[in-house]
Amino acid sequence: MNPRELGEFGLIEAIRRRAAQAHPGWRVTIGDDAAVFKSRPGEELVATTDAVVEDVHFHWRTTDPRSLGHKALAVNLSDVGAMGARPVGFLLTLGFPPQIAEARLDGFFAGLLRLARASRCPLVGGDIVRSPAFTASLTAFGAVAAGRALLRSGARPGERLMVTGELGGAAAGLRLLEGPGVRTAQERALARRQNAPSPPWRAGAALVGARLSRAAIDVSDGLAQDLGHLVRESGVGARVALESLPFARGLERAAARLRLDPLALALSGGEDYELLFTVARRGPSAAALARRLQCRVTEIGAITATRGIAFTRAGRPYQPREAGFQHFKASPRRSEK
Ligand code: ADP
Ligand code: MG
């Protein structure tokens, strides 16, 4: 797609053709003043938005357009899933300089729309603006049974704490890309976790469907920080056994090469987009949950009535170095996001 040849309306037409896919629930999509969704009785609508901006969230030097398109939707699916909702569709505001290389737009849409089809989450509208930096701002919608959304405020003392997938891989991948470079197949897999994450976006809706959980958050800023949000909003605390954390495959080896602490990457590296959730004390085991959610699930601790997070290592209290990333907060690790 060449915006200089197509002009704004030609470009919208081209997007509309490429974005064609089944769109259950939508009566009107791209082409009118707004899209129209017919919600089902007994369901609530979930809305979330997340932007990726060139040289803030990514550099063209270390990512490819296809991965970027995939990631732009993946991070929104992660938020929809973390509410326990199934994705239903999304809007896209796209900003780019007029001289943008055609291959960047084509690759971006290829990655974006591939995931849109795989997740049955159609592109139903958007906007195009001129911008000095490539920017993709997505607003995604989901649907969840009324009153059943997984909330940060939903955790109760005694519940067990579970996390899907693996931690620390995306952060290690980013540091490899920005530092010494990616050499082995294992390091390439870590870089992929950074550039093209695959959040378990179906897991939240499966938990709601089976009435197994009331509380979840997606791990986007690091486990320590995101668990902090969950316990604060719920007015509870948590204990976490650090030796139980599911380190990403190849994390320890990569951390050694980077001269970083793998535990710090797993706890506060960020961008893993895994799902952190609670289940009842007598609820299913991690193995049973893994079968039901069709992804790896690890029990890492429990919710406590005492506020704050108590980390233990081999049964002893342990205070890891703090914090995930925050925009606008002065930090020597600015390049993290
Ligand atoms: P308006 O001036 O009414 O905002 P636009 O000309 O901006 O209309 O958009 C025309 C149609 O194309 C709308 O349905 C809009 O949702 C859709 N559209 C515009 N930009 C995008 C985009 N980047 N992705 C998907 N749909 C888009
Ligand atoms: Mg418009």
Written account of the structure:
With 337 residues, the chain is of the alpha+beta class. Helices cover 34% and strands 24% of the residues. It contains 10 helices and 13 strands. The strands form 3 sheets. It has a 7-stranded mixed sheet, with helices on both faces. Strand 1 (26-28) and strand 2 (36-37) form a beta hairpin. Helix 2 (65-82) runs parallel beside helix 3 (102-118), helix 4 (169-178) packs across helix 5 and helix 4 (169-178) runs parallel beside helix 8 (251-258). The longest helix is centred in the N-terminal third of the chain and has 18 residues, at 65-82. The radius of gyration is 20 Å and the shape is globular. The model is unreliable at 323-327 and 330-337 (pLDDT under 50). Residues 12, 15, 30-33, 92, 94, 123, 125-128 line the site of adenosine-5'-diphosphate.
Question: What descriptors fit this protein?
Answer:
globular, 337 residues, disordered C terminus, 4-stranded mixed β-sheet, 13 strands, alpha+beta, binds magnesium ion, binds adenosine-5'-diphosphate, 7-stranded mixed β-sheet
Beginning-to-end CA distance, first to last residue: 28 Å
Q: Give the helix proportion (percent range).
A: 25-40%
Which sheet architecture does the biggest sheet show? 7 strands, mixed
Outline: globular
List ligands, each type once: adenosine-5'-diphosphate, magnesium ion
Which class do the helix and strand fractions yield?
A: alpha+beta
Report the portion of residues in β strands: 15-25%
H/E element order: HEEEHEHEEEHHHEHEHHEHEEE
Provide the low-confidence segments as ranges: 323-327, 330-337
Number of strands: 13
Radius of gyration: 20 Å
**Mean pLDDT, nearest integer?**
94
